[in-house]
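dumping this here so i dont lose it again. seq + smiles for zinc ion
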Amino acid sequence: MPDTILAEADHTSLDVPVIRFVPLDPAFAARVRAGGPDDNGQSAERAVSGGTGTPCRQCLRQVPAGAAYLICAHRPFAGLHAYAETGPIFLCADACPESLGAATPGGDLPAILSSATYALRGYGADERIVYGTGGVVPRAGIAARAADLLARADVAFVHVRSAANTCFQVRIDRA
Ligand SMILES: [Zn+2]
């Protein structure tokens, strides 16, 4: 296993998708919207968005001002283990279009990533943090940093989390 960050991935062609932003499991969203349990076994809270600070993890956009949203606990991992953190997320209260698609290092970021900085963290295929990969990056550097991390053989996916509050925002996979 490499113990240093590999040389920068080849970003010479910024139009080639190398990463993709992965919204949360639509089955989870559907369950919570129907009043079912979140990842703490509780029903979601309901609130009304002021138009900022309410990033929906399914459509990857801000919940519009005046629209209802849900506050629930989510564990963005397949397994249940020590590294599988559970935390608060927001979701549009009503069904919203799932955001899908590959991204390029030079392309647009999902609309929810509107803050100045984010924490990125690489995980291995075993869903454990790959130590040394975590750090805070400016918004404009998210895609390139994720591409560099995903160029490593020991990184299977990347989490984008709030730099200030560490809330899970979106996962990034190889395209
Ligand atoms: Zn939404």
